[in-house]
Amino acid sequence: MSGELTRRSAAELAELIASGQVSAVDVAQAHLDRIAAVDGEVRAFLHVDAETTLAQARAVDERRAAGERLGPLAGVPIAHKDVFTTADMPTTAGSRILQGWRPPYDATITARLRAAGLVIIGKTNMDEFAMGSSTENSAYGPTRNPWDTSRIPGGSSGGSSAAVAAYEAPLATGTDTGGSIRQPAAVTGIVGVKPTYGGSSRYGLIAFASSLDTPGPFARNVLDAALLHEAFSGHDPMDSTSIDRPVPPVVEAARRGDVAGLRVGVVRELGGEGYQPGVLARFNDSVELLESLGAKVVEVSCPHFGYALPAYYLIAPSECSSNLARFDAMRYGLRVGDDGTRSAEEVMALTRAEGFGPEVKRRIMLGTYALSSGYYDAYYGKAQQVRTLITRDFDAAFEQVDVLVSPTTPTTAFPIGDRVDDPMAMYLADLATIPANLAGNAAISVPCGLSDDGLPVGLQIMAPTLADDRVYRVGAAVERALEDRWGGPLLAKAPELAEADR
């Protein structure tokens, strides 16, 4: 029964718990057993506390037994990216500079998960301060892709994507600054969503780039992602960028799942040279599928998308150089060289030198240079102008179509170590995802098949801001049609992990 429970969707688990067929404790224990069996190989988690997990589950069972009305995901386990503060667990952001830090408060997303009755089963590994596309930049070692443990699970939210793909949790949280939910989802064969910027709270999220960071859900199917999206989204007065508007009807859209009459735009600039042939083949199959389901497909040009990558790698490092200045060895976290003989400036320099990894240092230096006197207008200012042009490209495209589609990533999961010495090659993993971050649009990645190398490919669907329901509607239609074709979810085709279910 334990193995069967970990294969169930979040919606199915919630129904089983609500009907009394199983307890939240049973479900939590099944997932803890799965983590014990496979996480030595996958390394998705940085922190798991069985006692705390079971206490949360027990509390849900007690509340239900007392007749309390609970949320639709009550009792379902969730893996939580280690960039959200949690008062009862360490929060490290994948960095040595925060090793062992226990925050004094919960992030808004964390608090909403608890209020909804979700059971936070542990904190997941990530690229340090969310800077990376492979989860190799974690100070605590890389996470591995459950499809092939010699390969990356994407990044920066690779621990979360791997946990869901390895059946260690049915749901997970992530953050998407330049593709850090959608790209990991694509390469691990699951669903990942970047909500509209401002639709999910950043309060208590350790900041990387404040105008880009967007919390979002991971799940093994579109409906589960929608249920989680609805559970933690909505206006938060603690976040000045939070949108004071109702959450779009994402669950209703996921249940509807049809594309009849919708206008779908294929982005000319997101494909072709640099894209793996197998990725393009699966993408083209998906476009044909959308047409067969009743969508009207047209090609759309977004001419400034080609400048998105360089613009992003000026804007994001500039914001990170400012945000990471708070890690100064004075108030919390790591402190190096404080022997009473050194000045505060020396201690700060030693701490930052030892506490930050190479990629974080690279981006801080890039950002500091771009913001420096005499260069601000030429670099950061110009990048923001390009951002405006990209937003206008989206606006013009959405006058013609309801959603835009592209491959989520140019390639399937690459081998661990393959790009660590080539930052440019690493950055190209986010080629197709970055435009939506710069404009703030909603976007989803859904599995659309296997490439010639036997690894999963993702289809990216993008919608206007505050039209998040459209990505769920189209994503669910694609998912349903492809699962009928495959005879089940794509993830069922993944090789079983060697240590599983021992």
UniProtKB/TrEMBL annotation:
Active site: residue positions: 81, 156, 180
Subunit: Heterotrimer of A, B and C subunits.
Gene3D superfamilies: Amidase signature (AS) domain
Coiled-coil positions: none
EC number of the protein: 6.3.5.7
Family, per entry: Belongs to the amidase family. GatA subfamily.
GO molecular function: ATP binding; glutaminyl-tRNA synthase (glutamine-hydrolyzing) activity; transferase activity
Reaction catalyzed: L-glutamyl-tRNA(Gln) + L-glutamine + ATP + H2O = L-glutaminyl-tRNA(Gln) + L-glutamate + ADP + phosphate + H(+)
Upper lineage: Bacteria, Bacillati, Actinomycetota, Actinomycetes, Streptosporangiales
Protein name listed in UniProt: Glutamyl-tRNA(Gln) amidotransferase subunit A
Keyword terms of this UniProt record: ATP-binding, Ligase, Nucleotide-binding, Protein biosynthesis, Transferase
PROSITE patterns: AMIDASES
Its biological purpose: Allows the formation of correctly charged Gln-tRNA(Gln) through the transamidation of misacylated Glu-tRNA(Gln) in organisms which lack glutaminyl-tRNA synthetase. The reaction takes place in the presence of glutamine and ATP through an activated gamma-phospho-Glu-tRNA(Gln).
Leading EC class: ligase
Domain Amidase, first and last residues per copy: 27-471
Pfam families tied to this protein: Amidase
Entry superkingdom: Bacteria
GO cellular component, as recorded: glutamyl-tRNA(Gln) amidotransferase complex
